[in-house]
Amino acid sequence: MNSTEYKQCVKCVMDTTTTLIKFDEEGICNFCHDYDKLASKTVNRPKEERYKDFELSIHEIKKWGVGKKYDCILGLSGGLDSSYMALIAKEYGLRPLLVHFDNGWNSEVAIKNIENIVNKTGFDLYTYVINWEEFKDLQIAYFKASVIDIEVPTDQLIFASLYKIAYERNIKYILSGNNIRTEAILPADWCFPNKLDYTNLYNIHQKYGKSKLENFPKLGIIQRNSYYLSGIRQVAFFDKYDFNVNDVKSKLVKEFNYQTYPCKHYESVFTRFYQGYILPKKFNVDKRKAHLSSMICSMQISRSEALQELKNPPYPESEQMEDKAYVLKKWEMSEKEFEDIMHLKPVDHKVFGFDKPINQTDFIYKLYMFYLYKIAFPFGIKKRIL
């Protein structure tokens, strides 16, 4: 096949706008085959097996939480996945501390959804407000770097804040909203897969940022190892539980008077603008193809329905222009500077380096472990949490 020839999968809606796509003799792409392999081990297992694992996870969390104010932490964005996780937590008697990461880009709909969820569930809400000036500088640095995944600062800092709060409050479990049925398909050239890589983030900011990042929670390889050794664990439910998007929306509307969004992750104004404007125009990436393809593979939508949806813009162009004006105002950036950066050639994330794996024979690693075992946690790493 000529490298310039356009081709689309006959089963899903993934196409040659990703360089990583391959097709079998029947015209079915590698992403469909990868989904089927993953699903056979997870969401397509017999319901009895999945629910047994789900109930075991609930039991373990409750058992650990006996006598404690909270038995888990849940990051709540107001989006579909985290909102449904809050509903499940309520229905099954968990006692999470809801944590909302406020990076300055909340939509009014997301704020209202969070308010309704808190009022209905009675769960405590902790809002982690990041330093706006520093976060703005980091976002602009990513934009100037011309890397594809400008959402890394938000994604990395969400997890960094969750782990930080879990550690400070001595909470072992972090509920994760990972969802295979709607998120399994996402080409590695459409994002930065190593979203928690602190070296990559640090180097991008060092080159293109202006201010110091003094008030940020870190989640580099050392921090991740520290949190893991201290016993903190993520728990994902949705691969064990039933998750049909239309059913989930109906339940959320009924229980929380929930307002839905036109596309996945549009609870954030910036994410909406990034996915609906920057990605298509600068990188020729329509992320809806990945989400819709996952839903096709999980039989929640037909291919014809997905193709029909893709005929429309990601969201109305008039709203895109409103979001553009809002982003430029918040970034304090001129339209000329914005457009100049939009026309720069994309740059691969790998240019900015990656976290170096810890070598257990290194002197620094041995010194670090001595610190953990003898100074930070002299009575045992596990006992700090368990």
Describe this structure in words.
With 386 residues, this protein is of the alpha/beta class. The chain has two domains: 308 residues, HUPs (Rossmann fold, 3-Layer(aba) Sandwich), CATH 3.40.50; 27 residues, no CATH class. It is built from 16 helices and five strands. Strands 3-2-1-4-5 form a five-stranded parallel β-sheet, sandwiched between helices. Strand 2, helix 4 and strand 3 form a beta-alpha-beta unit.
Summarize the structure.
The protein is α/β, with parallel strands linked by helices and 386 residues long. It is built from 16 helices and five strands. It has two domains: 45-352, 3-Layer(aba) Sandwich (Rossmann fold), CATH 3.40.50; 360-386, no CATH class.
- Relative helix content: 40-55%
Q: How many β-strand runs?
A: 5
CATH superfamily of the largest domain: HUPs
In angstroms, what separates the terminal alpha carbons? 56 Å
Give start-end ranges of low-pLDDT stretches.
373-386
Largest sheet: 5 strands, parallel
Count of DSSP H/I helices: 16
| Percentage of residues in strands | 5-15%
Mean pLDDT: 92
Which value, in Å, is the CA radius of gyration? 22 Å
Which geometry do the CA atoms define? globular
For the record, the CATH class of the largest domain is Alpha Beta
Secondary structure category: alpha/beta
Which fold does the CATH topology of the largest domain refer to? Rossmann fold
Q: What string, H for helix and E for strand, traces the elements in order?
A: HHEHEHEHHEHHHEHHHHHHH
